[in-house]
Amino acid sequence: MKSLLVRGGVALALAGLATFAPAVAHADVSVQETQTFTGWAYENSPKEAKREAENMARRSALISGYLHEQCVLLYAYSTRLAPGYFAGNAAIRCTR
């Protein structure tokens, strides 16, 4: 009977601590702003189209006040539209 009371007391104490754990774990976390930017381009090579699309997305981020170091490339791809004519798309996600 005594061990059952001890187990119950320990379980109650751990449950009480668990209710405070999320508040303690997130006490020093600040709110971060995240935004996604996209870019597109039409160029003569796939590499050029991807590069220009990424540059367009980064320019949009720069205008919005994000630094280059705050942004991560999500994707950059190109597709052939016609011989010697390629479309490129890119997206970046920035956090501050």
List key phrases describing it.
3 strands, three-stranded antiparallel sheet, 96 residues, alpha+beta, 2 helices
Describe the overall structure.
By secondary structure, this protein is an alpha+beta fold. Helix content is about 45%, strand content about 35%. The longest helix has 24 residues, at about 1-25.
Structural class: alpha+beta
Task: Report the biggest beta sheet as strand number plus sense, adding barrel if it closes.
Answer: 3 strands, antiparallel
> What value does the Rg take, in angstroms?
26 Å
What level of helicity do the residues show?
A: 40-55%
- Strand-residue fraction? 25-35%
Q: How do the SSEs run, as a string of H and E?
A: HEHEE
Low-confidence stretches: none
Report how far the terminal alpha carbons are from each other. Answer: 56 Å
Q: What's the number of helices?
A: 2
Strand line-up in the sheet with most strands:
1-3-2
Outline type: elongated
Output mean pLDDT: 84
Can you count the beta strands?
3
